[in-house]
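Progress note, project year one: complex with pyridoxal-5'-phosphate.
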Amino acid sequence: MGLDDITTRVRKAEQDAGRAPGSVDLIAISKVQPLERVEDVLKAGHRMFGENKVQEAASKWPGFRERFDGVTLHLVGPLQTNKARQAIELFDVIETVDRPKLARTLARLKDELGTCPDLYVQVNTGEEEQKAGVSPDETDALVAECRELGLPVVGLMCIPPVDEEPALHFALLAKIAARNGLEKLSMGMSSDFETAIAQGATSVRVGSAIFGDRVY
Ligand SMILES: *Cc1c(COP(=O)(O)O)cnc(C)c1O
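Model obtained:
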């Protein structure tokens, strides 16, 4: 537990998988964490973070960015079109593009603002009713549409079903990314990030194993 321990485990998993040292980014998921815990991780020198809600990110990250240089912030939760403008202003990476309507909104805002974060398409690999993400069958079409719109799609993201072997979902995501020529794979959380690294993750999203249990 803790940043040092998780960083060590990420480096070890890279090595075990024959991956280059430092090839996997550790995204510290700070949602719902007390601000002191986030500040401690910033003071330890970590700079890559993720949040799952636009509003919550807006309440804490502009302040942290004033005090700490070089922060990179990822949106890892569902994005409503009416929050897209604010999301573009707050985040460096949006990992949750999951439908054509959102892609079209982002494209319009990109033209208007002259800027757009790097984007990932979120894939609902388990085809779970309650979960966000495009189904595996529809992913190629959504990636193609994003490209036609001129959006900077760089990779895919998934959250496997809790009760299934994550390795199968990570392998599926890697396969869909490969056939679409996408290099980035955001997969793996506190309980399964080493498995994700073995399957080719280029970034892992770790919350509670870095910060401790979330305090709701
Ligand atoms: C909360 C969250 C995480 C981190 O979960 P932990 O189990 O605490 O590591 C990763 N990805 C997403 C999309 C999340 O919402």
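The beta strands are 25-29, 48-51, 72-75, 93-97, 118-123, 153-158, 184-186, 203-206.
The longest helix spans residues 3-16.
No further modelling is planned for this target in the current period.
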